[in-house]
Amino acid sequence: MKAIKSIGDLKTLTEKLKIKSSADKKKVQICIAMATCSIASGSGKVMEFFKEEMPKQPFEFMIRSTGCMGLCHSEPTVEVTLPDSDPVVFGKVDVKRARSIIEDYIKTGKTIDGVIEGN
Amino acid sequence: MKSKQIKIALRNCGHIDPEDIADYISKDGYAALGKCLSGSREKVVEIMKMSGLRGRGGGGFPTGKKWELAAAVPGEKKYVICNADEGDPGAFMDRSVLEGDPHSVLEAMAVCGYAIGADEGYIYIRAEYPLAIKRLKIAMAQAREAGLLGKNILGTGFNFDIGLKYGAGAFVCGEETALIKSMEGNRGEPVMKPPYPAQKGYMGKPTNVNNVETFANIPAIINNGSEWFSSIGTEGSKGTKVFALAGKVKNVGLVEVPMGTSLRELIYDIGGGILNGKKFKAAQTGGPSGGCLTMKHLDTPIDYECLKQAGSMMGSGGLIVMDEDDCMVAVAQFYLDFTVEESCGKCVPCREGNKVLYQILNKITHGKGEVEDLKKLKDFSEVIKSASLCGLGQTSPNPVLSTLNNFYDEYLEHVTEKKCRSKHCRALIKYIIIPEKCVGCGACKRACPAEAISGEVKKVHLIDQEKCIKCGACYQKCKFNSIIIE
After folding, report:
1. Considering the entire predicted model, what is its pTM?
2. Minimum Cα–Cα distance from A6: chain B residue
3. Per-residue pLDDT averaged across B251-272, rounded?
4. Count of alpha carbons within 13 Å of B471, Cβ hemisphere only?
5. Which tens digit of pLDDT belongs to each residue from B315-340?
6. Domains (ranges, CATH) in chain B?
7. What is the ipTM of this complex?
8. B146-155 pLDDT tens trace
9. Facing A68 at nearest CB: one of B25, B100, B147
């Protein structure tokens, strides 16, 4: 990132980034928790899987590696936000569930197992 | 279910990429720094004072006051230190913040530097947190590149940079004077206060030390205003607190709730209740320096004062839930074992006193305790509390005193009846075969490593109590539930 020279420049940059992130809402957004605890319970494999599978899909997407979502009881956790929808958090995600997230939830919007309610 | 949470310190955790500064900036990251730099230093201190934020590392000292003290000390060179030496067993709040939102801590440290007149900051972090260290390094490099750390930040003429110092994972180094000693390359041993770090801290210069979670709250306070922050929480404890919910609770995890939330809401509504339908017995807050809360405290609002009144303390936010299978004497012994290990050894009450406490507890859990021991526990605890040099020793007997207060019956049973009602203390339990239920399959006999079980095939087996080492192997092997623990 280029050096931000003034407080005004920072404000402009923030606005620009906000516009970009609201544009991203048109994409399928996948946040994968990648904290120490998540990685220990296998989120690395889940990340690899999404990175490999998503480019094969016909929709626009972005994958974000985040910190801990606080849901230790259900690690690894993945938050999926479909275009213009509320985020849904899936728990205990392994490669099998990750496949089901893509095939069933993202593609057809079906409810599948492993949703963590009320998060 | 989790709607009772309000996320301030954890506002970005799980939502942004911690390795991408653009993600942080898009969430109004560094706006607080910009806001502060366009106003006076005094204004920043004023906002912090008005917010009512108190130190989240355990002590609960008002943050604004701390900054005011450090700002008032004259000096060309001052330091800001972030205490990331998280060491309570079962606590992982700071690690999560540093791994999930490192920029918020960097930004807050720069704000603090501006407020107190410091141009250099350090994060004292334990080497056992490699991922947090990696992400901090990335964040620091990105912030420097973006001109948000270093010389002439945002063109305002304010200089501030941050470095890392690694700790070797000593619990005592969470105490600020010991932390400073360790940073200076000396043994991590506390020194007498005063002088406080605000007067004479790192390298003898005025120093302000705050905890990770305290810092993580600050950008949100600056952006949303002190009134917003002080509208959350209770009279004396404003804002929210992050808790690492651990132990025998269904939804183990990291939660952030407004101050004043009750233990019941925390354990049952957010935590989903006790595992396997067991009964709640106690919750330990404040780690090895804290105490336990029991059934009668379930509806106590959790804030600094109420926890103190209940004989525990806020601590850094570890909350370990215990059920009916946990023996409270053994719990006290566990914490004392930790303290004995972690005492730096500088002062006698802590070094020797805690060892004696541990030995007495060990005697009791091994069925060799006497009634007088209970009084001894209390007496020794009082001496250690009043005569120790630093916070570690002054609070180390708390788990003993608090369990003695709340579970005196259990202690008494251990010493008089040699009984452990939770069936936890091995020396006090017996494995017994119920003759009516035993089918004589011999599985227990084969599993027993001590050859303590006799009996012929298809006949009732018997455990020789003299030989039994109470490993529980037979209990696990028996398919007919014919072995019971007494």
Report:
1. 0.93
2. B154
3. 95
4. 14
5. 889 999 999 999 999 999 999 999 99
6. 21-230 (3.40.50.11540), 240-323 (3.10.20.600), 329-417 (1.20.1440.230), 430-485 (3.30.70.20)
7. 0.95
8. 999 999 999 9
9. B100
* Alpha-carbon distances, residue B338 vs B175, B291, B387, B397 (angstroms): 16, 14, 20, 12
Instruction: Name which of A13, A36, A73 is nearest B131 (Cβ-Cβ).
Output: A36
Whole-Å CA distances, B429 to B32, B90, B466: 59, 28, 13
Q: In this complex, do B154 and A6 lie within 8 Å of one another by their Cβ atoms?
A: yes
The verdict on a CB contact (< 8 Å) between B10 and A70 is yes
Q: With contacts defined as CB-CB under 8 Å, which chain A residues touch B128?
A: none
Q: What is the 3-state secondary structure (H, E, C) of B336-382?
A: HHHHHHHCCCCCHHHHHHHHHHHHHHHHHHCCCCCHHHHHHHHHHHH
For B290, residues 6+ apart whose C-beta sits below 8 A from its C-beta are: B284, B307, B312, B313, B315, B395, B398, B399, B402
Q: Which of B10, B12, B13 to substitute to test the interface with A, most A CBs within 10 Å?
A: B13
Report whether pLDDT(B453) > 90: yes
pLDDT band at B39 (very low <50, low <70, confident <90, very high): very high
Residue A110: its pLDDT value, please?
86
Q: Taking the domains of chain A in order of start, what are their residue ranges?
A: 27-108
C-alpha span between B61 and B176 (Å, rounded): 13
Cβ-based contacts of A3 with chain B (< 8 Å): 145-147
pLDDT tens, position by position, A82-97: 998 899 999 999 999 9
Q: Could you name the CATH architecture of A27-108?
A: 3-Layer(aba) Sandwich (3.40)
**Please, which pLDDT band fits residue B89 given cuts at 50, 70 and 90?**
confident
Query: Is omega for the bond preceding B194 within 30 degrees of 0, making it cis?
Result: yes
Residues in Cβ contact with B45 at an 8 Å cutoff, skipping those fewer than 6 apart: B64, B67, B68, B71, B115, B116
